[in-house]
Amino acid sequence: MRTTHLPDAAIRPACPDDAQAIAAIYAWHVANGTATFDTAAPDAAAWAEKLADFAARGHPFLVATRGVEVIAYAYAARFRDRAAYAHTCEDSIYVAHDARGAGIGSVLLLALIDAARASGFAQMLAVIGGVEPASVALHGKCGFVHAGRMRNVGKKFGRLLDTVYMQCDLTGEGWDNE
Asked: What's the CATH number for 10-169?
């Protein structure tokens, strides 16, 4: 992982004991934001299953902690299950409401990029629901470029919402065919 860090936070692989904290972070975003189009948050048991699935597949699932408290999480999973997508992953990153704005998102996403590369992924996609400005800025800061926009594909809180796709080349080779 990169050496970039915050003095009061640590990044580590998620473990089953983190499921409750992850569920709470995500539940806040489901109830209050448009970064996810979920309208009902999964419980800790569902997150524990997801953690086990990620471990079995060898996909990175990281948490940021302050002391013993989980303040953010991020993971990378195959973008699609079809064989041709095997080298492409999609990231998800969520920061606890009261930990936002302190820079932990950047540190965590950069660590996830490194972990995804080490897991064999060559491309990472961000699918940003609601075109959340903070998420677009975070991904741009971490090397993602705009890759597309789908208009009015979600509806939450009585509003039609767009989704933005951003992409990061994990190989360092760039795109010469554009």
From this structure: 3.40.630.30
